[in-house]
Design a protein that fits this description.
One of its GO terms (biological process) is carbohydrate metabolic process. This is Poly(Hydroxyalkanoate) depolymerase family esterase. GO terms for molecular function: hydrolase activity, hydrolyzing O-glycosyl compounds; polysaccharide binding. The protein has 2 domains: about 290 residues, Rossmann fold (3-Layer(aba) Sandwich), CATH 3.40.50.1820; about 110 residues, Immunoglobulin-like (Sandwich). The protein contains 11 helices and 19 strands. The strands form 3 sheets. Strands 1-2-4-3-5-6-7-10-9-8 form a 10-stranded mixed β-sheet, sandwiched between helices. A 5-stranded antiparallel β-sheet has the order 11-12-13-18-15. Strand 8 and strand 9 form a beta hairpin. It is globular, with a radius of gyration of 21 Å. The relative contact order is 0.13.
């Protein structure tokens, strides 16, 4: 078996590739545009985390709060730049909190200590809870709409937050994590858990969550899980253990109430009580630990994918997206438009984003023809079903982002070799 040090080297060696692929180019911020701001005093913070907050320029009187938790060897600024949560905040009007590790040499969140695994016990989870409490008071945010999401170490912390602070969080979305308390122990790294060697009964896993806050009697926060079957860093076995844990916490059978395939190679199982889906789990066939983060799907699971009024200002959007190139739909089919933006460009490749906007009437589904320059090849994609990897590619919506109200928007993205110059996108409603 690999030592914990070797395992951590493997795990966080892949993260810089993710950051490089998804980092957005930031233009100078306009005076009216929203920006990432550090908050230096927000309450109990035993492990000296940093708090960064993104306040969209337009938001409702009682905005929702999303806590977006970074991976090891990352930080809040990198996760802000390299993920889609701030852009979605501009679109839907919620606040994003980005916690940032300062004390751990590996930049990982504490998901192992007895303090972090206990309600108001201390360490990183208490610091993040303090950030949420600060936001609820300072920004008059809605306590009924507070959510957590994260990748890898951030996914593990998402499990911790929902387990230890069910009074604060209403739902979570964990991308490539492990069950609550799977890392529990005296060391920051648990190689046995990371390797998928820890297996417990559903009751045992559920008891660990209930013991984190014995006095809690309210409704448990809903959970969404994502994991790649080829994950050799936080082994895919952890996905099944998470399902065992949360179905037990919710008092549900491990037999899903529904199973479907939202995208080729994905299997989604849902576990519901009545009409409420308490747990949603998406298995991604052949995908490694470096999985594409489905930010829009997480926001939809939280129920936040309803645009605010008025829409975010153009200046706020421009501060995060360089040189957009819009291609309207052909005459007579103007139910939607598609706008391509090269979100990040490097030698030999780029990340592209395509914004789909409904016209003056609502649509139930969309289809974008994405045309790449000769020689460009898509290696990764998210939030859309791609029919091919080069040339003229038909991209259709997924189940959660097809229906758009009049003037509403959604977005899909992709990573490609080559250059973005000459890329076009046209949209038709279907």
């Amino acid at each position: 078996m690999k030592t914990p040090t070797v395992l951590k080297t493997v795990l966080w060696g892949v993260i810089p590739l993710l950051v490089a692929a998804f980092t957005l180019l930031l233009a100078p911020t306009a005076a009216t545009a929203a920006s990432l701001t550090e908050v230096t005093s927000f309450g109990a913070n035993p492990s000296q985390l940093k708090m960064y907050v993104y306040l969209p320029a337009n938001r409702p009187a009682r905005p929702a709060v999303v806590v977006a938790v970074h991976y090891c060897h990352g930080d809040a600024v990198a996760f802000y730049n390299g993920s889609d949560f701030a852009r979605l905040a501009d679109q839907y009007g919620f606040i994003v909190i980005y916690p940032s590790v300062t004390q751990a040499s590996d930049g990982c969140f504490d998901v192992a200590s007895a303090a972090t695994l206990q309600h108001n016990g201390g360490s990183d989870s208490l610091g993040i809870a303090s950030m949420v409490r600060y936001a609820l008071t300072t920004y008059d945010a809605d306590p009924a709409r507070v959510f957590a999401t994260g990748v890898s170490s951030g996914a593990m912390m998402t499990n911790v937050l929902l387990g230890a602070y069910p009074d604060l969080f209403k739902a979570g979305s964990a991308f490539a994590g492990v069950p609550f308390a799977c890392f529990a122990g005296p060391n920051s790294w648990n190689g046995e858990c990371a390797s998928g060697l820890i297996s417990k009964t559903p009751q045992q896993w559920g008891d660990l969550v209930r013991a984190a806050y014995p006095g809690f009697t309210g409704t448990r926060p809903r959970m969404q899980l994502w994991h790649g079957t080829a994950d050799t860093v936080l082994h895919y076995n952890n996905f099944g253990e998470e399902i065992k844990q949360w179905t037990n916490v919710f008092g549900l059978s491990q037999t899903p109430t529904s199973t479907d395939t939202p995208q080729s190679g994905w299997t989604r199982t849902r576990y519901a009580s009545g009409s409420t889906v308490a747990l949603e789990a998406v298995s991604m066939q052949g995908v490694s630990h470096n999985l594409p983060v489905q930010a829009a799907a997480a926001i939809a699971f939280f129920g936040l994918n309803t645009a605010t009024s008025p829409s975010p200002s153009p200046s706020a959007s421009a501060s995060r997206s360089p040189s957009p190139s819009a291609s309207p739909s052909p005459a007579g089919t103007r139910a939607c438009t598609a706008t391509f933006t090269p979100a990040s460009v490097w030698a030999g490749g780029f990340v592209g984003a395509v914004k789909v906007t409904a016209g003056s009437t609502a649509i139930s589904a969309w289809r974008v023809t994405l045309t790449l320059p000769s020689g460009d090849t898509v290696s990764n994609s998210w939030n859309g079903q791609f029919s091919a990897v080069s040339g003229a590619i038909a991209v259709t919506n997924l189940p959660y982002n097809g229906a758009l109200g009049a003037g509403a928007t959604t977005e899909f993205g992709f990573q490609s070799s080559g250059t973005p110059t000459g890329t076009t996108a046209t949209c038709t409603a279907t």
